[in-house]
């Protein structure tokens, strides 16, 4: 595999964590009208936190099972992203 293919493979490995982080942060901003407290962090910071934690989950799944893309890893990624957004919105105060 050449360097171009390695780069594409790495970007495809990272994309779910960062895209889910962006979508989760944007969805939380649109839920403010429905009663979810607004996050006190900026959007860029929220996406960054989601992306870093999501990458840690993806790397953990790769280290644990030896392959990427297992359903348990995806489920953990969603759980971590949702929990992180809940904490950033301080929804426990509601």
Tag the structure with descriptive keywords.
mainly alpha, single chain, elongated, 94 residues
Written description of the protein model:
With 94 residues, the chain is mostly helical. The protein has helices at 3-30, 43-65, 71-88. α1 (3-30) crosses α3 and α2 (43-65) packs antiparallel against α3. The protein is built from 3 helices and no strands. The protein has one domain. The radius of gyration is 15 Å and the shape is elongated.
Q: Supply the number of structural domains.
A: 1
Q: Sketch the major β-sheet.
A: none
Overall form = elongated
Low-confidence stretches: none
Question: What is the number of helices?
Answer: 3
- Provide the succession of SSEs: HHH
Total strands: 0
- What helical percentage do the residues reach? over 70%
The fraction of residues assigned to DSSP E strands is under 5%
Average the pLDDT over all residues and give the rounded result. 90
Question: What radius of gyration results from the CA coordinates?
Answer: 15 Å
- Separation of termini? 51 Å
Look at the helices and sheets and give the structural class: mainly alpha
């Amino acid at each position: 595999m050449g360097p171009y293919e390695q780069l594409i493979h790495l970007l495809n490995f990272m994309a779910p964590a960062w895209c889910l982080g962006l979508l989760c942060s944007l969805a939380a901003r649109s839920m403010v009208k429905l009663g979810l407290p607004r996050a006190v962090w900026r959007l860029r910071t929220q996406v960054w936190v989601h992306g870093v934690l999501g990458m840690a989950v993806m790397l953990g799944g790769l280290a644990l099972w030896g392959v990427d893309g297992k359903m348990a890893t995806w489920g953990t990624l969603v759980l971590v992203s949702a929990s992180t957004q809940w904490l950033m919105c301080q929804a426990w105060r509601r």
